[in-house]
Amino acid sequence: MLMCRELATIASDYLDGRLGPGKRISVKVHLMMCRHCRAFVSNLRHTVVLMKAHSSQTPAPDYLLRLDDEIARVLADQEQSPSDR
């Protein structure tokens, strides 16, 4: 029987139709019995749809520079005030 961890590793292939018939049936059976994996695959499917819908958008020219600056700022803040983890 397919385990949750294995399903997580092949979920993209399942959604893309790249699994053989036997593995695809195993995934479907697992999804019928496991609500957590059903939710995972559903969320992954929605993510794929959203990414395809926005894949034609190009970020502003300075986007990566601003992103790098923000990441550096957050990391510096974390180093100055470590959390209680």
What is the strand and helix layout of this fold?
Layout: H1 4-16, H2 21-33, H3 35-54, H4 63-80
Helix pairs in contact: 1-3, 2-3
Pfam family, one: zf-HC2
Organism: Marinobacter zhejiangensis
Keywords: Metal-binding, Zinc, Zinc-finger
Structure write-up:
The protein has 85 residues and is mostly helical. It has one domain (4-80). Helices cover 75% and strands 0% of the residues. The protein is built from four helices and no strands. The chain has helices at 4-16, 21-33, 35-54, 63-80. Helix 1 runs parallel beside helix 3 (35-54) and helix 2 (21-33) packs across helix 3. The longest helix is centred in the middle third of the chain and has 20 residues, at 35-54. The mean pLDDT is 90.
Spans where pLDDT lies below 50 across 5 or more residues: none
Helicity level: over 70%
Arithmetic mean of pLDDT: 90
Overall form: elongated
Rg from C-alpha positions? Answer: 19 Å
Question: Which secondary-structure class do the elements indicate?
Answer: mainly alpha
The counted number of beta strands is: 0
Beta-strand residue fraction: under 5%
SS summary, helix count: 4
- Tell me the domain tally: 1
Main sheet, how many strands, which sense, barrel? none
Amino- and carboxy-terminal Cα gap: 37 Å
**Succession of helices and strands:** HHHH
Protein name: Putative zinc-finger
GO molecular function: zinc ion binding
InterPro entries: Anti_sigma_zinc_sf, Znf_put
Keywords: Metal-binding, Zinc, Zinc-finger
